[in-house]
Design a protein that fits this description.
The chain is 17% helix and 35% strand. It has 3 helices and 10 strands; from the N terminus they run βαβββββββαββα. Strands 2, 3, 4, 5, 6 and 7 form a 6-stranded mixed beta sheet that branches. The longest helix has 13 residues. This is YceD family protein. InterPro entries: YceD.
């Protein structure tokens, strides 16, 4: 989602410039985070201009697939994020200043990194499946591992110790 400064100066000079687009953020799936799948997201917003500064207020809506914190099954998580970003085309911009004003390099303002950043900031710490039986999709065995149940199994006696068992039975009879 890119805007040229000439386009913004023309459209946002006297009145707010509204924009809406569907953007592809599937790159977030390959990053080291919990997002397993994310489709295209809808971005709607408005841009206003004041001097050399551009004020963007936009809403990002979509849905992502995250792992359940209990069972690791896929959970579809819908989101709606409201964000505000300020950009400056001034060459006298002080980068050491603590304000959240982003400099514009060249004649093009790219909003995509800020859209992705806002989505990553809103990924929840934990999500849980609402499924009544989440165990049905859960893996129980894998390569070199197995889930053990909490039900106690009958104690299997090693055949080498089978004769010792008879000694214990004899001791119980003597008592």
């Amino acid at each position: 989602m890119k805007f040229t400064l000439a386009q913004l100066k023309k459209n946002a000079f006297n009145k707010p410039y509204q924009f809406s687009a569907e953007v592809d953020v599937t790159e977030l799936e390959t990053m080291n985070n919990d997002i397993r799948k994310i489709g295209p997201v809808q971005v709607q917003g408005v841009c206003t201009m004041q001097g050399d500064q551009y004020f963007f207020k936009f809403t990002i809506t979509g849905q992502m697939t995250l792992p359940c914190a209990r069972t690791l099954v896929d959970v579809i998580y819908p989101f709606e994020i409201k964000a505000e970003e300020i950009f400056s085309s001034s060459s006298y911009y002080d980068e050491e200043d603590d304000t959240e004003i982003h400099p514009i390099d060249g004649e093009v303002l790219d909003l995509m990194p800020y859209i992705k950043e806002n989505i990553l900031l809103e990924v929840p710490f934990r999500v849980f499946s609402d499924d009544a039986d989440p165990e049905k999709d859960t893996l129980h065995k894998g390569n070199g591992w197995e889930v053990l149940s909490e039900k106690p199994e009958e104690a299997k006696i090693d055949p080498r110790f089978k004769k010792l068992e008879s000694l214990f039975k004899d001791n119980e009879k003597e008592k």
